[in-house]
User: Fold this.
Amino acid sequence: MTKKDEIDKPKPAARAEVEVEGKKIPDAVVKRLSLYARVLEGLDHEGVDKISSAELARRLGLNSSQVRKDLACFGQFGVPGFGYWVRELRHEVHRILGKDREVFVILVGVGNLGAALLSYKGFLKQGFTMLWGFDINPEAATRRGRSPIPIFHVDELDQKLSERPVDMAVLALPAKEAQAVADRLVALGVKAILNFVPIRLTVPPSVHVRHVDLSLELESLSFYLGEE
Amino acid sequence: MTKKDEIDKPKPAARAEVEVEGKKIPDAVVKRLSLYARVLEGLDHEGVDKISSAELARRLGLNSSQVRKDLACFGQFGVPGFGYWVRELRHEVHRILGKDREVFVILVGVGNLGAALLSYKGFLKQGFTMLWGFDINPEAATRRGRSPIPIFHVDELDQKLSERPVDMAVLALPAKEAQAVADRLVALGVKAILNFVPIRLTVPPSVHVRHVDLSLELESLSFYLGEE
DNA sequence: TAGATTGTTAATCGATTAACAATC
DNA sequence: TAGATTGTTAATCGATTAACAATC
Assistant:
């Protein structure tokens, strides 16, 4: 084994996939699923009761084959020659996403960004409850967040989460502490992490992490600015 | 032409690509470029002066072939049998990203999220200047944002941007107004948009949009939460 | 020189799109 | 029944990874 092989092989949990009844669901499909839910809710509210994969695809900005294939990962929901019943498909997608139950979330790190997320009303949708915040300076954080939720010291993570387990954590703390906090969250049973910290977190494959790097999104756009 | 074809064909500016000296640069490469810059800056500060593609790949969480291939889009920066000079590669990546010039940014929509982004110190990195905010209620927005920058009425967009053109806009306003504002920004010469509004924006192919949907990121994670 | 690592081409893999038989 | 649209298989496309000759 050459040195190059040693370095290239171990690859940290590359393509996140999850099995549904033996089938692997690509992460790209999962990411689209919530968009499907959103669009179907919109159609339902508009009073649209049936829709074809082609029209649904148009509204999603996708290809009709892709829509049918995405849905086919989870079952057969359409009527050949007709299309899909909006209400029914909406319910199916909700079921697939687990939207029939309340998801409990905590926020770790209530600095500028964390407080920001707390005050952003569009962040938490129906079905999600932000329970607590945690920070190394809960008093300052409480002031900053104009606290709609109680904010505890990070050291109380273990105690609070053993009282009442939560499903997800949003991470918005300094890079130095992020991995240690992630480790504790995993130990405490958190199953999904939305990570706003600009480092790659290492977690067991059973825990799912989405990384949102706001600064990187902005910076990479600068590539497209012409010369001058 | 069948109806399906009509709907599937027009596809809105699918895969964003940009030419560099005749070569198409995939959007995936561009997205990685800023990460390269960040890691190379780190290495430089650590005092590391040379690095192989394999070790760089390890730090980036990528494959060494991919690193070499990404860089090869822009030229030959390495020394066969040796690796890359960190300082030199860092400068090359900065040059490719256009980091040698200041980028001027505005924020349109200073509500909860917008104000949040303003107060988030990690958002704007060196080389980016947030000039102004715009909101339909500048007074309220100024209070909310604890305003490090002046906030004007959205109606003043035309006037301010003709005084002084800007490169990028960050959009964090209600969905209803987003497309109209985007159209005006494009007309006023904005070349890149970071869109936090949960709708697809339609812009000419010369303008680049990155869409960050915070709510969708969180929601899609719920797929991975087990049964119970 | 011998060893290491690049740049690049070829192979693989996965995701998207097209096509079409099944069927409502 | 005739027309439309599904579910699914096959074709295409692009991105990632492997392999290796070139070369420092």
In short: The CA atoms of residues 139 and 161 of chain B lie 20 Å apart.
